Amino acid sequence: MTDSLHHLEPWPELPYAAWRDTCETLQLWTQIAGKIRLARTPWLNHSWHVTLYVTARGLTTSPIPDGARSF
């Protein structure tokens, strides 16, 4: 019987310096989305109303209310 864990490849190296600009840009855009959601959505304990959700296409929020409409 062989151990299947020995056949797994290790995770590839992800050098921070090579993708630092992308990382910083992603952080800024998620902060913008969070601030808009924080300002537009009724308060829930522990800021649960500001959560970003991981989907197959990336990060998302639930609809953000804006008066009689939402985005």
Describe this structure in words.
By secondary structure, the chain is α+β, with helices and mostly antiparallel strands. It has one domain. The chain has one helix and four strands, in the order H-E-E-E-E. The chain has one helix spanning 16-40, and strands at 53-55, 58-60, 65-66, 69-70. The strands form two sheets. It has a two-stranded antiparallel sheet with strand order 1-2. The chain has a two-stranded antiparallel sheet with strand order 3-4. Strand 3 (65-66) and strand 4 (69-70) form a beta hairpin. The model has no long low-confidence stretch (mean pLDDT 87).
Gist?
The chain has one helix and four strands. With about 70 residues, the chain is of the alpha+beta class.
Low-confidence stretches: none
Structural class, by secondary structure, is alpha+beta
Series of secondary-structure elements, N-terminal to C-terminal: HEEEE
Radius of gyration: 19 Å
Shape type: elongated
- Biggest pleated-sheet summary: 2 strands, antiparallel
Which range best describes the helical content: under 10%, 10-25%, 25-40%, 40-55%, 55-70% or over 70%? 25-40%
- Please tally the β strands and state the result: 4
- Let me know the average pLDDT: 87
N- to C-terminal distance = 55 Å
Strand line-up in the sheet with most strands: 1-2
Tell me the number of structural domains: 1
Task: Tell me the fraction of residues in β-strands, as a range.
Answer: 5-15%
Per DSSP, the total helix count is 1
